[in-house]
Amino acid sequence: MSPTVDNDVSQRLLDAAERLFYERGVQAVGVDAVVAEAGVATKTLYAHFGSKDGLVEAYLRRRDRRWLDWLRNAVDTAESGPARVFAVFDALTQWFTQPNYNGCAFINIAGELATSPTARSIARDHKAALRALLADVAAGSGVTDHTTLADRLMLLVEGAIITAHVERDGAAAQRARSAAAALLELDRLVSAPAMHSDALSTN
């Protein structure tokens, strides 16, 4: 079997696993369901991933890359400054309103596979990468304390994701966006007197 065909089969298995794991949960989906969805033999799955645990790990790592690339692209296409903060929440709104939205795969997996060091480590790494992305967004927003803003954006994003999932509330991201706008406005108001005072002192 050629490397190209091998890669095609791996992607089919990962696509099937992602659909099923994300919709139903990892523990509720057996290997038989994945291979049936992918249209391959069970031995093929083991040949490519070694075990169900190996498949779960590959699924999470691929989803991590795809999700972060998607959000980063949404941010990068926005104008620099506060617009990139808002782009985060506008992107989340699009995600939340998709028919197959079922929360954050990494939050789900951290709860479902609480005793799996690998799954929880991947989930932690995903959240650390999200935090780093938000730190970049905050740093370019023009606020005086971008570290604090990044921490608050992380809470707003995570809170919106969970609210949208648990309460089936597609508008959660827009309320989080409004809270982010309030944080930016507060920083502007607090910074303005200080900037005015500095300007007077130089005259």
Structure notes:
It contains 9 helices and no strands. It has 203 residues and is mainly α. It has 2 domains: 1-50, Orthogonal Bundle (Arc Repressor Mutant, subunit A); 53-192, Tetracycline Repressor, domain 2 (Orthogonal Bundle). Helix 3 crosses helix 4, helix 5 packs antiparallel against helix 9 (172-201) and helix 8 (146-166) packs antiparallel against helix 9 (172-201). The N and C termini lie far apart (77 Å).
Oligomer: single chain
Q: Quote the CATH topology of the largest domain.
A: Tetracycline Repressor, domain 2
How many angstroms separate the termini?
A: 77 Å
% residues in beta strands: under 5%
Question: How would you classify the helix and strand content by structural class?
Answer: mainly alpha
Helix content: over 70%
**Domains (count):** 2
Uncertain spans, ≥5 residues at pLDDT below 50?
A: 1-5
CATH class of the largest domain: Mainly Alpha
Tally of helical runs: 9
CATH architecture annotation name of the largest domain: Orthogonal Bundle
CATH homologous superfamily descriptor of the largest domain: Tetracycline Repressor, domain 2
